[in-house]
Specification:
The complex is a heterodimer.
Chain A lengths: L1 E10 L15 H21 L2 E6 L6 E3 L8 E3 L8 E10 L2 H12 L14 E4 L10
Antiparallel strand pairs in A: 1-5, 1-6, 2-5, 3-4
Chain B lengths: L2 H17 L4 H18 L18 H19 L3 H9 L9 H12 L6 H12 L4 H7 L4 H14 L11 H13 L8 H15 L3 H14 L2 H4 L19 H15 L6 H14 L8 H15 L2 H15 L1 H9 L8 H11 L3 H14 L3 H19 L1
Classes of the chains: A alpha+beta, B mainly alpha.
């Protein structure tokens, strides 16, 4: 089994094919989209491949250490940041092919006009613990 | 075994152990062990005791005390605190003069002690007063069980020096219970129902109008639960809820408790909040809501708390009572960075007929939303207005 992170971006991914902002969809299209996402997660729970799914608020900031006894420095939020993560789903699957298949399915979630969004998702394998048998 | 009955006995059993001289942390662990044991062996009143005494189990509470006390002694023995254990054995049968009602109350105070952070107080209350397992609490708050176990044991260390017989502050207890209720919609344990159970138990242990006010507030909000979400999980705003699905029994109970509390003329913020909820519950349709009275209660609430969030909700009520322009004027006096400010502005703009501005504000409010259900709801509102404008 191998774990993969499917990352969804607010900004930074190549433009989706059906690239219409959600507040320009009809309420029915929004409901259909939500249902698809919930069903997708429920199906992965049933197959035993679901690990976690979380959504992030768009607002955030950068923080760094600023030396002994000083409060951390904060910067941002940056409206012009190139890359902005919207959320993720973690899956635990048998193969890389399966991970690609599932990311493709998630990207097919319906959007404006009830048509698939064809959204670009970033697929990243987790680094694993070292195996017990090495020779 | 009736788990609810078992868990309702948790605080008084724990209180007895502490009165007998057990330290709180060890006693709490022992009571948890006894609860698990009770679920396993299912002792019933009148049935042969399984606690190894060979005597019939006269009552479940007595059974739990016996088992928990033995667990505590075993653990103490294992801890090599020999002298302490022998001292304790000498005084074992003395449960002390305090009643179990006092014990229960003291436990609430201890678990909500001001030295604890809110998340620690919540976790400790759910375990030591509510009798939930660490695993159940961890699942409810979506954190790993090991994390929750650490949080609880650190909380117990924090309060280990607190005297058990000192009166505590009811206000801190109410804040903890309110937190449990308000964030109680995830996991397999129904935390909202648990918060109501714990507040009911507290109301039985102490006569205090704000405890009654909080219980009424919880009941009145809980009564609307079935109507608050659509089958697809989306939020249904108060005005659009099917009022036929409100729980009339819970509403009647909440209103009765509130009226008795208000009659004592010691108003507090929970009573005022409950009064607003009761006025909503009292309206057969959204259009029949007594918004004028609701504005008056928000004025009381603002006076009691000084909270800007209350003033924001008041602006909505003013918009209903005196029209959207009046609501927008009330809103203009507030800080635009308040949570939900943009959503309220969007709502009032729509009511005022400015759909383009309302749609833009709803989309902006969706980006600022702090939870998914609210974000989806606001996005839908923007979509609804945009669809209407373009058609």
């Amino acid at each position: 089994m191998a774990k993969y992170l499917m990352l969804k971006h607010y900004r930074g991914a190549p433009a989706a094919v059906n690239n219409v902002p959600m507040d320009r969809w009809t309420p029915q299209e929004i409901s259909a989209h939500m249902r698809y996402m919930n069903d997708f997660a429920a199906r992965l729970e049933e197959t035993g491949e679901f690990v976690d799914s979380q959504a992030l608020a768009p607002e955030g900031m950068f923080v760094r250490y600023d030396g002994e006894g000083r409060p951390p420095v904060t910067d941002g939020p940056f409206a012009e940041t190139k890359d902005l993560i919207a959320g993720w789903m973690v899956i635990d699957v048998d193969s890389h092919d399966r991970a690609v298949e599932l990311a493709g399915e998630l990207s097919a979630a319906p959007g404006a006009g009830g048509k698939p969004i064809h959204e670009w998702l970033e697929l990243r394998p987790f680094l694993t613990a070292p195996p017990t048998v090495t020779e | 075994m009736d788990e609810a009955l078992l868990r309702s006995l948790t605080p008084s059993v724990l209180g007895i152990l502490v009165r007998r001289g057990a330290d709180f942390a060890a006693a709490e662990d022992a009571v948890q062990d006894a609860l698990v044991e009770a679920v396993r062996v299912r002792p019933a009143a009148g049935s042969p005791g399984s606690a190894g005494t060979g005597e019939p189990v006269r009552d479940l509470k007595g059974w739990l005390v016996t088992v928990a006390w033995r667990r505590f002694l075993d653990a103490t023995r294992a801890d090599t605190a020999r002298r302490r254990r022998e001292d304790l054995l000498d005084e074992e049968p003395a449960p002390g003069p305090a009643s179990s009602v006092d014990d229960t109350l003291q436990l609430y105070f201890l678990c909500a002690h001001p030295s604890l952070t809110p998340s620690s107080a919540v976790a400790l209350t759910l375990r030591a007063v509510g009798g939930l397992t660490t695993r159940q609490i961890a699942r409810a708050y979506l954190v790993p069980e090991a994390t929750m176990a650490q949080r609880i044991s650190r909380a117990k260390r924090t309060v280990c020096g607190v005297r058990f017989d000192r009166p505590g502050d009811v206000a801190t207890v109410l804040r903890v219970l309110y937190l449990v209720f308000n964030e109680g919609y995830s996991g397999d344990v129904d935390l909202a129902a648990e918060a109501i159970r714990l507040t009911r138990q507290l109301a039985a242990a102490i006569d205090h109008p704000e405890v009654a006010g909080l219980l009424a507030l919880m009941l009145l909000h809980h009564a609307r639960r079935a109507a608050r979400t659509a089958p697809d999980g989306s939020l249904v705003p108060l005005a659009e809820q099917d009022r036929g699905r409100w729980d009339t029994g819970a509403i009647a109970e909440g209103v009765g408790i509130l009226q008795a509390a208000l009659a004592r003329d010691r108003l507090g913020e929970f009573q005022a909040q409950a009064a607003i909820a009761a006025l909503h519950a009292d309206a057969p349709t959204a259009g029949e809501t007594d918004w004028v009275q609701i504005v008056e209660w928000y004025d009381e609430l603002a006076r009691l708390t000084g909270s800007p969030v209350v003033r924001l909700n008041r602006a909505v009520a003013v918009g209903e009572a005196d029209g959207p322009r009046a609501g927008l004027a009330a809103l203009a006096a507030l800080d635009g960075s308040l949570p939900r400010y943009t959503a309220v502005a969007a709502y009032l703009r729509e009511r005022d007929g400015d759909l383009a501005t309302a749609a833009r504000l709803y989309a902006e409010a969706a980006r600022e939303a702090s939870n998914l259900a609210e974000r989806d709801h606001l996005t839908r509102q923007a979509a609804r207005l945009n669809a209407r404008r373009s058609s």
